[in-house]
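1st attempt posting a full record on here, be nice pls
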Amino acid sequence: MIARFPALRLSDALFKLVLMALAFVAASLLLRDALVIGAHVPLDPNEGWNAYLDRAAISGGSLYPQGLMINNYPPLSFYIVGALSTITGDPIVAGRLVSLIAFFAVAGGIIACLREMGADVLASLFGCLFFAASLLIASDYVAMNDPQLLGHALQLAGLSLLMQSRRNVFAAALLMAVALFVKHSLLALPLATMAWLWRRDRADGARFTMALLIFCFAGLAVTRFFLDANLFTALDSPRRWAFANFLNGAKHFSSWAGIAVIATALIAWQRPRDEAVILVALYAGTALLLGGLFSFGDGVDANIFFDASIALGLSVGLVLLHLPARWTGIAALGLAAPLALCLSHTYSEANFPYTEAFAREVPRDIAFLRLHPGPAICENLTLCYWAGKDEPVDVFNLSEAFKTHARSDAELIGLIDRRHFGSVMLDSMNDFAFGPDVKAALLAHYRVSRDDDDGVFLEPKGAPAGP
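the predicted structure (as tokens):
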């Protein structure tokens, strides 16, 4: 017995050291993200794409256009961010603020759910920090103008209502349904919750299922009536699917989450009657399955595994709760170590948008676009938005439509032949987004004017040289 006390003290000390390390990393990266919320630096092409639709939502424009801008997201986030942008003056800043607040809400929701599941304070804090560090290290979505985290925050709030002693099934179903009109791919938690409730209490399962379906159909009806949009067809935009995409996504995710996935499977096997463990295992399994399926698509980013990240945050909290005290330190270290390795491999690349060198280039790129009159093509729509360009061109979704032969490139080629666009910004001329016919038309009528870390900038041949 005496020999065990040093082991317990060492385990406790190691556990707290890991907690402090996770907290330091998360706080440092979070401060980095927060400091550029108001900066005119494009963090991701999604920011400009969302900004155009945020502006359309509050200005009465069409959210589901049929031209060169394609919207394959549900509408709710555009109204939320658009409304906030009337205060901030810029929907990109407003969206970054919403994303940051939602990130804190998800982190707090993990703590709240783990506490309701019986976890102590330190185990709950570890689950929260594990999730926070994973998003900050393995993605660029925190404090970015994108609705993903807002949807997760709403769904986790719904889950927390189900974890309380007086379960509120209808409010939970409402929040999870509302989240689907923020981001339609957030299916993992509603499906896992439905399966768990049916297993635990069929009456609650039936109530949750019926409420969720009613709220979803009501949302579809409202969208159809007020926006004249059929979300089933609008959200089903053409996309190419490839096994290589899955391999890349799975490799990135497993590089930091592999040990946590194994730990989740082990605790589910060891505690098959623990309702909290069953729920989290269902959530993790559903999230991994759906994330893996969606990751086959072109353009799918690390956010497709955010549901899995939340589920793993919950599961590692439960793992530490049920481990003997003498093993919690080494377990926490083993779970967190892959995140440290991931950070060491990706920090330089992920930190590049925050560098002074990049910040100096962006104003010149925006000035180039602004000084060329008329519409512009921007692969990074954030630059076109800040340059005040109307008639946005959705390069990614259009290129996917061309690749899958769902749409002809003749219209775009015709516009290029007429030099309709005053300027063009593409990520690269080598890895050309559109097909060879569009590239040939572009090279025939436009010339490269500048090339920097943002991309390649072109202007019509015969035009005065740009800045």
